[in-house]
């Protein structure tokens, strides 16, 4: 018997297939395909699971390898950083004394620079010219009071502020240190009077007007006091009568001169 069949699979669980024998007589066979589907699924499922498991295992192995490589790389980097830090520490340790010495030398150089600046200022002060010539206006001055020389004749190297102070008070204040020549000439009708040059209220030099010309019919007499002294910045010079009231004659007869020599 020959069995020939064709099938249009609209129902996966049951279908009807026409069967004919060798004589052409039609036969009908009913076939249950339920278990066939299950076998097909199982036959596909097992290889698929193996493929999935194998793939997952490969992925896990690759990930582990990547992690291992990454750990090695990080370890190498950390080792290199540690080695670099050690070298830096060794360098700082070896050169610490040198750095300290360099800092000391820099500090010394700064001090030397300050000394040079001060020296330059000193040299500049030494080369600065200072001169003052001024005369008194006629007046009478009491003992131990400063004579004022308000008529300025010559001025060099003195600031306006100090000049104003000098004209109002009669006190010369040194602005530029150095060696100074100081001279004062006074004319007076007062007999037997002493006058003095003071530096910081300390007597430097005396002058004296006697009664010689008065006894011979001349009422005006002149005398002088001259001194050379070292002045520092802020030192002051003034002229004072010592023992009595003194008449100071004006008209450029009573004058003070102060000159910086060096």
Explain this structure.
The chain has 262 residues and is of the alpha+beta class. The protein has a domain at 129-260: Jelly Rolls, CATH 2.60.120. Helix content is 41%, strand content 31%. The chain is built from three helices and 13 strands. The strands form four sheets. A five-stranded antiparallel β-sheet has the order 5-3-13-7-10. A hairpin with a 2-residue loop joins strand 8 (193-199) and strand 9. The protein starts with 13 loop residues before the first strand and ends with a strand. 15% of the residues are buried. Residues 1-16 have low confidence and may be disordered.
List the keywords:
single chain, 262 residues, alpha+beta, Jelly Rolls, five-stranded antiparallel β-sheet, four-stranded antiparallel β-sheet, disordered N terminus, coiled coil
Brief overview:
With 262 residues, this protein is an alpha+beta fold. It has three helices and 13 strands.
Order of strands, widest sheet: 5-3-13-7-10
Biggest β-sheet: count, sense, barrel?
5 strands, antiparallel
User: What is the first-to-last residue Cα distance?
Assistant: 152 Å
> What is the 3D shape?
rod-shaped
Please, what is the average pLDDT? 76
The share of residues in helices is 40-55%
Domain C1q: 128-262
Coiled coil: 99-126
Pfam families: C1q
Keywords: Coiled coil
